[in-house]
Design brief:
The protein contains five helices and 16 strands. The chain has an eight-stranded mixed beta sheet with strand order 2-3-4-1-5-8-7-6. An eight-stranded mixed beta sheet has the order 10-11-12-9-13-16-15-14. The chain is globular and about 50 Å long. The longest helix has 11 residues. It starts with 17 loop residues before the first strand and ends with a strand. Helix content is about 15%, strand content about 35%. The protein is of the alpha+beta class.
């Protein structure tokens, strides 16, 4: 179970709905990333607490999308996150989709040849299953049926936001080797709606792309890079790989370690940001 539901609020999820709820990243210490996401990008604290083998915490950006940070905790009880960090280093870990019927989602996955793992119905307030990254185009997909949201008081040591107003997490860019197959998962099974709402300036790699939207603020661009491009080389022989998280920022001057991309945007390379590439556009 992700999070501690003791401080919670009722969910307003409609029957039959599914939504891209948040992106989760893995870090050795949450304190390593808060200066960026809270101090520079102005995210607001949502919740945090201990789990089995990890401690999750969530922050929210303008527009409502959330980012979750996982750090190892009590790894003797569950070492999945420790093993992930040892194997991959810090960086993107999973996408969470909230839904109203976990059983229907599991059967839907099986109907297209995917076998969910980690199925857990032990807590009526939070039931979950996962799609392995080998099935879900290079990233863990968490399917979660939750009766409540999650809120808790912030810890005292959080940095103070430097930005005048918070950044907006506009969308995620996920490179895939087979665009049609990836659309079959994220649109067909996971309920994304194809949209052309993203502007051309928001596109980083060149190639064939599909933009997907959910009822909430979650937005995902699936992009099959052009063969021979830098993005294609970066993807390599993987079925998929999260390329970057895109933000609009009111004041780029407060964000450190940026590199111009040559098209008016700024990039923070993954090696400067805990394994997660950020691309910034001025609001």
């Amino acid at each position: 179970m992700i999070g501690d539901m003791r401080n919670s609020r009722p969910s307003s999820r409609e029957p039959g709905s599914i939504d891209l709820d948040h992106i989760a990243i893995a870090a050795e210490r949450q304190s390593d990333v808060w200066p960026r996401y809270i101090g520079e990008l102005g995210a607001a604290w949502v919740a945090g607490g201990p789990g089995f083998g990890f401690a999750p915490a969530q922050v929210r950006f303008a527009g409502g999308i959330r980012l979750e940070v996982l750090e190892p905790f009590d790894v003797g009880r569950n070492d999945f996150l420790r093993r992930f960090l040892d194997r991959n280093g810090p960086g993107p870990h999973h996408l969470t989709f909230k839904l109203s019927d976990l059983d229907a989602a599991i059967e839907g996955a099986r109907s297209i040849g995917m076998e969910p793992v980690g199925i857990d119905r032990s807590d009526p307030g939070w039931q979950e299953a996962f799609l392995h990254p080998k099935q879900a185009f290079g990233i863990v997909v968490q399917l979660a049926q939750a009766d409540h949201g999650w809120e808790s008081p912030p810890p005292p040591e959080l940095p103070v936001a430097r930005a005048g107003s918070p950044a907006t997490l506009t969308h995620l860019i996920h490179l895939v080797a087979d665009l049609d197959a990836a659309v079959g998962l994220f649109e067909g099974l996971l309920g994304g709606r194809a949209t052309d709402s993203l502007t051309p300036s928001s596109v980083a790699p060149a190639g064939a792309a599909v933009d997907l939207a959910w009822p909430g603020p979650g937005r995902l661009r699936l992009l099959q890079p052009t063969p021979g491009s830098l993005e294609s080389a970066w993807l390599g022989d993987r079925s998929g790989r999260l390329h970057h998280v895109a933000f609009t920022v009111p004041d780029p001057a407060v964000v450190r370690e940026t590199v111009p991309t040559g098209d008016g945007r700024l990039e923070i390379p993954p090696e400067r940001n805990g394994g997660v590439r950020l691309v910034l556009t001025t609001a």
